[in-house]
Fold:
Amino acid sequence: MGEPPRRVLDAFGAVGVPEPLPGGAGRSIRVANAVYKQVDDEAEAQWAAEVLDTIDENGFRLARPLRAADGAFVVAGWTASRWVSGEDSAPRWAQLLAASRAFHAAVAGLPRPAFLDGRTHRWARADRVAWGEAAGRVVPELMPLLRRLEALRAPVTIPAQVVHGDLSGNLLYHPVLAPAILDFSPYYRPVAYAEAVAVVDGLLWYDADPRLVDAVGGDQPTQMLVRAAIFRLVAASERAREHEVGGGEDVTALESLVTVLEQAS
Structure:
């Protein structure tokens, strides 16, 4: 990922030397007290900026979007946001869940964004499979695990709302201040599903204690966890297809996760 073009920096009034930031898939560039990021979907970026510009920070902090000189949030495919302090560490689960619940209370009541229907990236495809809105087709190595998860999935009647669907790696932790929430990844699902995705990430990637599954809130937490596991499994399969590799590297961690969920069901 290259630096923002000069015309983007000029539009936002940037003064300073661009500095790549760790994390964020290598897509974030800091200049002074602002962070620039090239976006994949300008409609989504515009919507997210409008939301984050207006909600109150209560129990969480935000990387507030910045406007260009003409008032725009998106310039030539780039956004800018306020730089926020904090440590990019492994998830601190109690803080993550508290910040998640506070953030989702703040965005409750937002209408479902229209752009969700047009998204085609692997996470959008995986989300639809997780919720039974699309057929699950995964690489052969992962098919037995998908079938086991589908056997656990049952109908749910839980209200949906706008949620951040990728919290586990997108919080900055501070010794005094509330966690800062980064890289808003909007979905329209139950709040407990967003928590479940973070918990599933913990079991898959952060060596979390399996008892973390008990931290998911809501009336049907196991069903949220099952869907979150399908989401990550299908996304792993989509990644394997895109890179023309097998899915074998994901089998061990996913096998352990599926076993935990079978025991919890």
